[in-house]
Fold this sequence. Notes:
The protein is mainly α and 430 residues long. The chain has helices at residues 9-12, 26-29, 32-45, 61-70, 78-93, 99-114, 116-122, 126-137, 153-162, 166-170, 176-204, 209-230, 236-242, 259-265, 271-275, 287-302, 307-323, 329-349, 414-418, 424-429. The chain is built from 20 helices and no strands. The radius of gyration is 27 Å and the shape is globular.
Amino acid sequence: xxxxxxxxxxxxxxxxxxxxxxxxxxxxxxxxxxxxxxxxxxxxxxxxxxxxxxxxxxxxxxxxxxxxxxxxxxxxxxxxxxxxxxxxxxxxxxxxxxxxxxxxxxxxxxxxxxxxxxxxxxxxxxxxxxxxxxxxxxxxxxxxxxxxxxxxxxxxxxxxxxxxxxxxxxxxxxxxxxxxxxxxxxxxxxxxxxxxxxxxxxxxxxxxxxxxxxxxxxxxxxxxxxxxxxxxxxxxxxxxxxxxxxxxxxxxxxxxxxxxxxxxxxxxxxxxxxxxxxxxxxxxxxxxxxxxxxxxxxxxxxxxxxxxxxxxxxxxxxxxxxxxxxxxxxxxxxxxxxxxxxxxxxxxxxxxxxxxxxxxxxxxxxxxxxxxxxxxxxxxxxxxxxxxxxxxxxxxxxxxxxxxxxxxxxxxxxxxxxxxxxxxxxxxxx
Length: 430
């Protein structure tokens, strides 16, 4: 066939070739047969019911309104009423910014809760944000509203329970090496651990684990701050600085052992923050210890083989808090018991169980909630019932019924986020 002398339309719109040759892309470097095997393995890891692992992408407020209409309200939904009350109180007592900025912030939060795309991230972490706002607002509560400060209670309990002041013993001998070893868990790892744990659990744990962890972490800190506000106690550094003299709310905080870190690096990293802390006399319970314990409990639940590692980190942080003269041993016990109580409740009622042979969240085609029953007959019970309502936290979705098993979450999903749930899975089936 004779080729035309005129260029075809396809040739006319073809971009001219560059005289320079670019290096081949990664797909070109990898042979086609190997690429095909990799794609096959990745696709084989996806569960038949991928909707329990998918994220919400809808912007429609109608999904939220419909979910609220169909939601079965329970006792646990009262958590949102408490958060609303704390939010209004905090915004009212904080003097700056002004009313316009506060109204704009409130509108932004409400909008984010209405849109399904942003709600799936904001709703489970709402207690964490409220804790941060409430903690900051505590600095503006008038002294006349606050109870008297307890100076002798914690040292007395320390001597009764342990026969000595463990914090004073551990902080009696200091060195640069020990200060750095205490600074790492207390001043660095502590602040980044919640985000790192959330990311790890989101990828490698059962779907729905991360929202439960976020709520548990937020409420643990909220309850802890409420206890510190109603039961203010002086920390060990106060005893070293002022003895057992009465304390008042005009006194400033202290970085205590962290001042050595500021001096070591020549930067005021911790002195300004601890000196102007809104909760100077919040020794009991220790939220550092509570955070470490609740992180260790959740991570040990998801990765049982690494339990010794998480326990070692917890003990490391316990030692750091006492070495830096920020907490008594009694404070650590109080924070740990608070975290343990919250974890016990959520594990028995709301926390998804890890399944053998499932490494990633995408390997799950159903989830099992709460403690494992003695008789596993529930897997075949109630199969004729209608599926559970859809849920943006990927727990209790209609797709959780698969592989001949059913996720027993129908009556327990208010904590995981069925409040303001999404109907994306239900609509996809229509």
